[in-house]
Design brief:
Blueprint (H helix, E strand, L loop, with lengths): L8 H4 L7 H14 L24 H5 L8 H14 L4
Length: 88
């Protein structure tokens, strides 16, 4: 993304990301704890601009789940993979 695409930068900071390993663990975690996490439904009020859903890992974290990967680690691996595949 070059400087001419700055209009898209605000969308990037609103993208929910998770490492695939953490995602897989998060899907199994509630079953291992003997409980289920019920997702909440979010309604977006009438506002101008991009309407992005509100996502939260609060319930998962409240149950004691710990993420192994942060944003920096995810992007490092993604960039390395893209370089290896010749995309960058």
């Amino acid at each position: 993304m070059g400087a001419r695409n700055k209009d898209y930068y605000s969308l990037l900071i609103n993208v929910a990301t998770v490492h695939i390993d953490d995602l897989a663990r998060a899907m199994v975690f509630p079953r291992e704890k003997g409980d289920f996490i019920v997702p909440q439904t979010h309604f977006v009020a009438e506002t101008e601009g991009a309407k992005l859903p509100g996502l939260s890992s609060k319930k998962l974290l409240d149950f004691g789940f710990k993420f192994n990967y942060g944003a920096e680690g995810m992007y490092d691996v993604a960039i390395k993979c893209c370089r290896e595949k010749g995309f960058l």
